[in-house]
Amino acid sequence: MFEVRNLSKVYNSGVINKASLKAVDDVTFSVDRGETVGIIGESGCGKTSLAKMVLKLLKISSGSMYLNGEDVSSIRGEKLKSYRRKVQIIFQNPESSINPHMKIYDCIAEVLRINKLASRKSEDEKALIYQLISMVGLQQEHLNRYSWELSGGQIQRVALSRVLALKPELLVADEPTSMLDVSVQAQVLTLLRSMQREQGFAMLFISHDLDVVRVMCDRVIVMFMGKIVESGTVDQVFSHPCHNYTKSLLEEYECLR
Ligand SMILES: Nc1ncnc2c1ncn2[C@@H]1O[C@H](COP(=O)(O)OP(=O)(O)OP(=O)(O)O)[C@@H](O)[C@H]1O
Ligand SMILES: [Mg+2]
């Protein structure tokens, strides 16, 4: 369904002493409808850079990406607009995606209006918003609040409702629950799973938390210094890691348990 081939990202920095850093190095993988692929690896190994390229927030240095067989590496205009609707992200820090000056109702309505899913201030719009918030386990009273009047878990639910409104084909979740406390984490993850079952989107799930990856993902990719060093089903990788880096990652994880 979604595929990247030989994707790389080189950051160039420095004005006088030019330096370049290969943050993502020749990465190839695919993810199918209804499937969740986990991306793990130490801080700075290139996970977010990869996610930003998938979302087309960051220009790719080389390689290609395909959505439903179509090459989306260098799409523009209307095609890019439609791609942006099909591929959505949930951020680590949900506050960053919600405007603090807007009531929650308007935050959700904004997405519906921009994407012409319902006409402004119509009964349809209202009904859709009520439906969306009940899907993510919020109540109507929350709609009248601002984001700073909600808890972290509630804000992540609002962010999720905005994404679900668009019925994405691919959802990228970059550490979606690392800012939440453990009990809320579990609720948001369960919600994400049940939404995926309902809507059938493919998911790329980036996380530091191997326990969470184990529960959420079907397959997992291990990155090390920009490269994929290992990939396979969660069971394969967690019970029989091949690469030394994966072994040390898992050993560290066993120590913490
Ligand atoms: N805009 C940028 N310009 C230059 N270098 C960057 C830029 N963004 C990221 N980098 C560098 O690229 C490398 C990969 O960063 P990235 O954010 O993709 O890592 P990550 O795996 O998501 O890390 P974390 O787990 O800490 O979120 C890092 O060395 C980072 O410093
Ligand atoms: Mg990151």
UniProtKB/TrEMBL annotation:
InterPro entries: AAA+_ATPase, ABC_transp_ATP-bind, ABC_transporter-like_ATP-bd, ABC_transporter-like_CS, P-loop_NTPase
Single GO MF annotation: ATP hydrolysis activity
Start and end residues of each ABC transporter domain: 2-250
Coiled coil segments of this chain: none
Family: Belongs to the ABC transporter superfamily.
Species whose genome carries this gene: Methanosarcina spelaei
One biological process term in Gene Ontology: transmembrane transport
Protein name: ABC transporter domain-containing protein
Any Pfam family hit: ABC_tran
PANTHER family: D,D-DIPEPTIDE TRANSPORT ATP-BINDING PROTEIN DDPF-RELATED, TRANSPORT ATP-BINDING PROTEIN
Keywords on record: ATP-binding, Nucleotide-binding, Transport
